[in-house]
Design brief:
33% of the residues lie in helices and 20% in strands. Strands 1, 2, 3, 4, 5, 18, 23, 24 and 25 form a nine-stranded mixed sheet that branches. A six-stranded parallel sheet has the order 9-10-11-12-13-17.
Length: 576
């Protein structure tokens, strides 16, 4: 019998721990790295020639929303295409457990607008054969999946479950007894391997992740003392973490609001004595004082021994805006949110209303709103269905068209969209296109990149962040080293999540590996594919080039970009 199941021969190992790269073979047995060194090919059942390739730990993505999509997309794409081998679900405090049977439909509606996961897809694919969080964990464990999953307890369904429903939870504050029961439920979840809890609290005029009816989410309206109580509830554990997103100020406040939000996250980390990862630190080129102020707060808490961690946006973030879809990133502006609610026919009727359009123009002229994702004048006309319009407007900004045609930018985006049957895709300005800002963020205690995987699939492709970091920031710009990149992509997030056997290439660790050609690594152009249930609805993707093999638990999940359909991922139950 062969000593190893697989041997990866002749690759350059970047092990994730900041150790300098070195050449060696990797022997895999029973899903784990059994030996690193010089190994004979004859000692394995299968050999992989990694000459000229990098062998690195799989990427650990701590901010995903595959809670629903794993039911119809076991590949958990697009993150898995780009080297992600482990993910965390339940982020932002959104999910599907615990849930009373009467609230199953309501829990799906709660994900439709804020995370832009199609209700029809959830309704078709999710059986809702669970109520408690342990039952949810069992269901996730049974599903085929290409990545490992850890689960956080999401605050919104937790609060709604204990308080008697989503609307009840929005109508009053929880009592002391109800908060105590919520902590008990988190304890029950931790007992079966959950890894902590997650929440979003977005207030002010930048709240763009709202409930299906346009109101704030349950987690948004919970007070400070509620979150501090949940944080203290984790203090008795030596495992688990908190994911927390907060924006309590307004879009014009500058650096002070984000500093205040990060400070509250630090208080939660201090109360729990567990790692807290804050979403998100986003570099804005014209206001670098904002992200620098956030990182200064992280440093202050770290100096006191508090495990506060920044989740750094390292990939350029732009969104594809299509007014024919359920576009939600203008939800912080009342007149836009009202226009973009309801059925397709209702939305189009409101967008076509001259009186409403006049209101939109007045608000824009007074405040430059909506601009939660950048000034609408900078939107680029990226994809147009009608050929005559394509020739005239393709790849031009709304501002350029407005100037040429002596029109208001609001008229430009809505007139072109209407003429194109509301199919036009507008691209928002990109946040974070500077490699030096990536270098600056990763000089602090920070995890590199996040995908929001499974969410906003019609509008964004952040799942490409590992490939972007390695190709654009490391290889092309030389802003950070390959060792630093893999440390922040794998080892650091594994530490936050409490993975004791993942995140680096060492003997005894799980064989979650990416084997790639650094010179060929690239992110392809965005494209629409049509595979969402129940009727092959569309989503936006970006494919990678340059990955030879991606392995999860010692099995090949992707070879040369092709899904092997092996689905070797596991539910990772975190234990002391």
């Amino acid at each position: 019998m062969a000593e190893f199941d697989k041997i990866i021969k002749g690759g350059t190992i970047v092990d994730g721990t900041l150790t300098p790269p070195y050449k060696a073979d990797v022997g895999i047995k029973n899903g784990r790295i059994a030996k690193i060194g010089y190994l004979k090919s004859t000692d394995a059942s299968q050999t992989f020639d990694a000459s000229g390739l990098i062998v690195a730990p799989g990427v650990v993505d701590l901010h995903c929303h595959y809670d629903a999509p794993v039911f119809w997309d076991p590949a958990c794409s697009i993150g898995s295409w780009h080297g992600v081998t482990s993910v965390t679900n339940g982020n932002c405090g959104f999910g599907f457990a615990p849930v009373h049977a009467k609230d199953a439909d309501r829990s799906m509606l709660s994900m439709e607008r804020n995370e832009a996961i199609p209700y029809e897809a959830m309704k078709a694919a999710m059986p809702f054969n669970w109520e408690t969080f342990p039952q949810w964990m069992d269901q996730i464990e049974r599903l085929p999946k290409a990545v490992n999953m850890i689960q956080l307890v999401p605050v919104t369904p937790l609060v709604s479950y204990v308080m008697g429903g989503y609307e009840e939870a929005k109508s009053r504050r929880p009592s002391e007894q109800e908060v105590a029961r919520m902590i008990e439920i988190i304890d029950e979840a931790m007992a079966v391997g959950a890894n902590g809890w997650a929440a979003q609290r977005l207030l002010g005029n930048i709240s763009v992740q709202r409930d299906y009816d346009g109101t704030l989410m349950v987690s948004d309206i919970m007070p400070d003392d509620f979150y501090l109580a949940l944080a203290k509830g984790l203090r008795k554990y030596d495992r688990g973490h908190i994911q927390f997103a907060q924006a309590s100020g307004n879009i014009d406040e500058g650096a002070e609001g984000p500093r205040r939000d990060m400070d509250f996250a630090g208080r939660l980390a201090e109360a729990s004595n567990r790692p807290l990862i804050f979403n998100a630190v986003v570099p804005i080129e014209k206001r670098p004082d904002v992200f620098r102020g956030q990182l200064a707060v992280v440093d202050e808490y770290n100096k006191r021994g508090v495990p506060l961690v920044a989740h750094a946006l390292t990939a350029p973030l732009y969104l594809r805006c299509c007014f024919g879809e359920k576009w939600t990133f203008f939800d912080n502006v009342d007149v836009w949110r009202e226009a973009l609610m309801g059925s397709y026919e209702e939305r189009i009727a409101r967008l076509s209303d001259p009186a409403r359009r006049q209101q939109m123009k007045q608000i824009y002229d007074q405040t430059r709103q909506p601009r939660s994702v950048g000034d609408i004048s900078h939107f680029i006309c990226r994809k147009i269905s009608r050929e005559d319009l394509r020739v005239q407007y393709q790849d031009r900004t709304a501002a350029d068209i407005a100037k040429a045609e002596d029109k208001h930018v609001i008229d430009v985006v809505l007139d072109i969209s209407a003429a194109d049957g509301w199919k036009t895709q507008w691209q928002t300005p990109a946040f974070n296109s500077r490699p030096d800002h990536c270098r600056e963020m990763l000089a602090h205690r920070a995890v590199a990149g996040f995908s929001d995987g499974g969410a906003h699939a019609k509008f964004q492709t952040l799942g490409m962040f590992p490939t972007d970091l390695l190709s654009r920031v490391v290889r092309d710009a030389g802003a950070i080293t390959l060792e630093q990149a893999h440390y922040h992509l794998s080892y650091m997030p594994a530490w936050v999540a409490g993975f004791k056997d993942r995140g680096c290439v060492r003997e005894g660790m799980a064989a979650d590996l990416i084997i790639y050609d650094l010179e060929k690594l690239a992110v392809e152009e965005p494209e629409m594919i049509y595979d969402l249930p129940p009727d092959n609805d569309s989503r936006l993707v970006q494919r990678p080039r340059g990955y030879r093999w991606i392995m999860v638990n010692g099995e090949v999940s992707f070879e040369d970009g092709k899904d092997t359909k092996a689905y070797p991922g596991k539910l990772v139950r975190c234990a002391a």
